[in-house]
Write a structure and sequence with these properties.
The complex is a heterodimer.
Chain A: H1 2-30, H2 32-36, E1 61-67, H3 74-82, E2 88-94, H4 97-101, H5 104-107, E3 112-115, E4 123-124, E5 141-142, E6 147-149, H6 154-166, E7 169-173, H7 185-191, E8 193-194, E9 201-203, E10 206-208, E11 212-223, E12 237-246, E13 248-249, E14 255-260, E15 280-287, E16 290-295, H8 301-304, H9 307-321, H10 323-331
Parallel strand pairs in A: 1-2, 1-3, 3-7, 7-16
Antiparallel strand pairs in A: 4-6, 5-6, 8-13, 9-10, 11-12, 11-14, 14-15, 15-16
Chain B: H1 2-20, H2 23-26, E1 36-37, E2 43-44, E3 52-59, H3 65-74, E4 79-85, E5 103-108, E6 116-117, E7 123-124, H4 130-142, E8 146-150, H5 162-168, E9 178-180, E10 183-185, E11 189-200, E12 214-223, E13 232-237, H6 247-251, E14 263-270, E15 273-278, H7 284-287, H8 290-303, H9 306-315
Parallel strand pairs in B: 3-4, 3-5, 5-8, 8-15
Antiparallel strand pairs in B: 1-2, 6-7, 9-10, 11-12, 11-13, 13-14, 14-15
Classes of the chains: A alpha/beta, B alpha/beta.
Chain lengths: ~350, ~325
C-alpha cells in the first residue's frame, strides 16, 4: 500500500507539472503579445527565466542543443533550457545541419554539445498506407524485422572523432543513447551504452532482443558518487516520473553517478541473458580527449519540470564546460576511433 | 461514506491526470520518426517528410516557437524542414554547407534592439564577420537554394551588414535607428493585432495562386524603409502606414517621416537566386490563417522551381559584399 501511495503521489505531482506546462504552452499561443515580450511562461515547479531573459538565454556557457530523429514535446523542452538562461546561451540545431556543426571547425562556437537526438533513426522498409516502399540508402543496416538504419555520412565519421580528440564537453540525454546503434559502434562507445527499442541489436557482440522502454515510471534516482563535481551539491537524489529503459549500458566503461530503483519485470525480453540489466541512470566517462556525461532520465515534461532533473542537467553542462573536466579527459583519454 | 469520497477522489484524480497528459506522456513513446496527430488537424510529423528540403533559420526575436514549428509541420507533405539557430545559422551561409537544402526560410532577427556585450568585451552589435558575408553573397550567386524571408527577418544584422537588408529590399529595427541604402531612418514601427485586408497585385504569379484577389488577416504591421523600385510587388495591405497609426509609439513622441510602404509581399532576384519576402507572420493568428499557409507553401515551391531559378539567373544582380578587413602582417 505504501508503494502504491508513493507511486500515486509521483504520478499526481508529475501530472501537475504536465498540466502546468500545457497550460502555459496554450497561453503562449493565445497571447501573441506575450510571445513578443518573451514567449510562453515557464512550466511550474522549476526556476523560470526572468522577464528580460531572451529565448535561448544569455549566460556565459555556449551550448549547442542537437535534436531530430525522435519526436518530443518541443516547447516544454525549450523552456527547460530557457530556465538555465543566466548560466547558458543555447543554440538549437537539428540533423542533418547538426552533422556539419559536429566538427573542429565549428566546434569553436560552442563550449558544450548537448544531444537529445537520435542520429540515424530506423524506419520500415515496407510500403505503408498505400505508398511506395522506402528507399533504403546504400550501406544501411537492415534488421530481421524489416527496419533499416542509415549510415552516418563520411564527413561526420571524420569530423566528430576529430572534435572529440580536440576535447569538447559532451552531454548525452535520454534517447541520444540510441543514435547510430546499428551502424556506428564507436558512437555507442562514446556515449557509454546503446539502445534500440524497435529492432534486435548486436552490441559488443551480444545479440539483444528489442530493448525496453517503460513510460511514466515513478522512480527514485539515487546519486552513487556524491563527491563528483556534478553531484556534490545536489543532495542524495530525486524522485521523478519518467520513461525508464532496459538498454545495454557499458558498466565497465563508465564512472557511475546515479542509479534508478526501477527494475524491469523480465529483462531477458529486452537484453541478451548474458547482458545483465543495469540500473545506471547517469554516468561520466571520457571519449578520446573529451569529457562525456549521460543520463537516462529526460523523456518528457514530467522529467523536464522536475527541479532535481534540471539541476542535474545544468550541473552536467557546467562540468562539461569546465577546464577541470577538459583536463581530466585529457589526462584520462579513451581511445575509441581508429 | 469515507470510502465513497475516497473512491471519488481517486477517480477524479485519474480523470484529471488522463485529461492533462499529452499523448506522448500517456503512452509509451512512438517509434522514432512516427507521425504524431495534431489536434484537429491532419497527421503531422515533426520536421515533415516532403520532397523540398528546407533549412529553417531563427533566433534574435522571441516568438511562439511551437506555434511556428507546428505551421511548418503542417507543410510536411511539401517540405522536410531542419531547424538551425544563430549563431550556428551563419555556418550555412557557406555554399559548401548548403548541399542538403533546396530552400532557406528565415524567421530570424539577430542584432537588433540595443547594443549588447560582444565577444571582444565591448558593447556593440553582433557582426557575422566578413567570411559569413562573403559566403552569403556567394550562396546567392550560386543559385543553389531559394530564399524565403518572413515577417521580422529584415531586421537581421542591420547595424553591421546593411547590404543584407538591401538584398531583401527592406530593413527594420524597432529599438534603434535603421541604416538603409546609405540613409538613416528612425527606429521602425510595429503594430500588433492589426485587422487588414491584403490585396493580390500580380494574380498570375505562382506565389499567390489560390488566394483569389486577396485575404483578410489580423497581424502585426511594420513601418520600415522599403526599396519598392527593387522588388516585384505581390501583395499590399490596406493599413495606412503612417506614424500616427502606430498609436502606442506615437503617444510616446515617436515620429516617422512620410508615408510608409503598403507592400506586404514581393519577389526579386539576387545573384542567381529567387527571393520572396512576406511581411505577415507575427504569431499563431497569422500562421493559422489558411491564406498565410498557402502563401508560405507557394513561396517555398516557387523559389526552388527551375522556372524561378532560370528567371533569377537572367535577372539577378550580384549582392553587395563589404570590403575585406585589412589583415595585419
Amino acid at each position: 500500500m505504501k508503494t502504491l501511495l508513493k507511486k500515486l503521489m509521483f504520478v499526481s505531482v508529475g501530472s501537475f507539472f504536465v498540466a502546468s506546462a500545457m497550460t502555459t504552452q496554450l497561453a503562449g499561443q493565445a497571447a501573441p503579445q506575450g510571445a513578443r515580450q518573451g514567449g510562453p511562461a515557464p512550466a511550474a515547479g522549476a526556476p523560470a527565466r526572468g522577464p528580460n531573459m531572451p529565448q535561448g538565454g544569455r549566460g556565459p556557457i555556449k551550448v549547442l542543443i542537437v535534436t531530430k530523429g525522435h519526436e518530443f514535446d518541443r516547447e516544454p523542452y525549450w523552456q527547460m533550457w530557457d530556465s538555465m538562461g543566466s548560466e547558458i546561451t543555447w543554440t538549437h540545431a537539428e540533423h542533418p545541419a547538426a552533422d556539419i556543426l559536429m566538427s573542429p571547425k565549428y566546434g569553436k562556437m560552442f563550449d558544450v554539445y548537448a544531444f537529445f537526438d537520435l542520429g540515424g533513426p530506423g524506419a520500415g522498409t515496407q510500403a505503408r498506407g498505400g505508398g511506395p516502399p522506402a528507399v533504403v540508402p546504400p550501406g544501411a543496416a537492415v534488421t530481421a524485422n524489416n527496419r533499416f538504419y542509415p549510415q552516418p555520412s563520411e564527413q561526420l565519421k571524420t569530423d566528430f572523432p576529430a572534435l572529440l580528440r580536440e576535447g569538447k564537453g559532451m552531454v548525452f540525454l535520454h534517447h541520444a543513447s540510441a543514435a547510430w546503434a546499428h551502424v556506428w559502434p564507436e558512437y555507442s562507445e562514446v556515449v557509454g551504452g546503446a539502445c534500440d527499442w524497435y529492432a534486435p541489436t548486436k552490441i559488443r557482440g551480444f545479440e539483444n532482443p528489442n530493448m525496453g522502454y517503460f513510460g511514466m515510471t515513478p522512480q527514485h534516482v539515487t546519486y552513487v558518487d556524491k563527491a563528483h563535481p556534478i553531484t556534490k551539491s545536489l543532495g542524495e537524489g530525486f524522485d521523478v516520473v519518467d520513461e525508464a529503459y532496459a538498454c545495454h549500458w557499458f558498466e565497465d566503461s563508465v564512472h557511475p553517478l546515479a542509479r534508478t530503483d526501477f527494475v524491469p519485470a523480465d529483462s531477458t525480453k529486452n537484453l541478451n541473458p548474458k547482458v545483465k540489466y543495469s540500473n545506471l541512470a547517469a554516468w561520466v566517462k571520457t571519449a578520446e580527449n573529451s569529457p562525456v556525461f549521460f543520463t537516462q532520465v529526460g523523456h518528457g515534461m514530467t522529467a523536464w519540470a522536475t527541479p532535481g532533473y534540471r539541476q542535474l542537467v545544468l550541473s552536467a553542462i557546467k562540468w562539461a564546460a569546465s577546464p577541470e573536466a577538459l583536463a581530466w579527459a585529457k589526462a584520462n583519454p579513451t581511445k575509441i576511433f581508429k | 461514506m469515507k470510502q465513497t469520497y475516497g473512491w471519488m477522489a481517486a477517480a477524479a484524480l485519474a480523470v484529471a491526470i488522463a485529461a492533462t497528459l499529452p499523448v506522448s506522456a500517456q503512452q509509451a513513446p512512438a517509434p522514432a520518426q512516427a507521425p504524431a496527430m495534431a489536434a484537429g488537424g491532419p497527421p503531422t510529423r515533426q520536421g515533415g517528410s516532403g520532397p523540398i528540403r528546407v533549412l529553417f533559420v531563427s533566433k534574435g526575436h522571441d516568438h511562439d516557437r511551437e506555434g511556428l514549428m507546428k505551421m511548418l509541420d503542417r507543410l510536411g507533405n511539401t517540405i522536410t524542414w531542419t531547424h538551425v539557430e544563430h549563431p550556428a545559422a551563419t555556418v550555412f551561409y557557406d555554399p559548401a554547407n548548403a548541399k542538403d537544402y533546396d530552400a532557406y526560410v528565415f524567421y530570424d532577427a539577430p542584432g537588433r534592439g540595443q547594443p549588447t556585450p560582444q565577444p571582444n568585451g565591448q558593447t556593440g552589435w553582433p557582426d557575422p564577420g566578413y567570411e559569413a558575408k562573403k559566403n552569403f553573397a556567394a550562396l546567392t550567386q550560386s543559385g543553389k537554394v531559394g530564399l524565403v524571408y518572413l515577417h521580422h527577418s529584415p531586421a537581421t544584422f542591420n547595424h553591421t551588414w546593411p547590404e543584407y537588408g538591401e538584398m531583401i529590399g527592406m530593413a527594420c529595427d524597432w529599438g534603434s535607428e535603421v541604416t538603409f541604402k546609405g540613409k538613416k531612418y528612425p527606429n521602425s514601427g510595429a503594430r500588433g493585432g492589426t485587422k487588414q485586408h491584403i490585396t493580390v497585385l500580380e494574380p498570375a504569379h505562382p506565389v499567390v495562386q489560390g488566394l483569389g484577389d486577396g485575404f483578410d488577416i489580423v497581424d502585426e504591421t511594420y513601418l520600415c524603409p522599403v526599396d519598392e523600385k527593387s522588388v516585384h510587388p505581390l501583395l499590399k495591405t490596406d493599413f495606412v502606414n503612417i506614424d500616427k497609426n502606430y498609436e502606442r509609439r506615437y503617444e510616446t513622441g515617436w515620429r516617422y517621416p512620410g508615408v510608409g510602404s503598403s507592400l506586404a509581399g514581393w519577389y526579386r532576384a539576387v545573384g542567381k537566386t529567387p527571393l520572396v519576402y512576406l511581411q505577415n507572420g507575427h504569431d499563431n493568428v497569422a500562421w493559422s490563417n489558411p491564406a498565410y499557409e498557402t502563401l508560405v507553401t507557394n513561396a517555398i515551391k516557387w523559389v526552388v522551381s527551375p522556372e524561378a531559378k532560370a528567371w533569377a539567373a537572367k535577372n539577378g544582380k550580384p549582392m553587395g559584399v563589404p570590403k575585406a578587413p585589412k589583415t595585419s602582417n
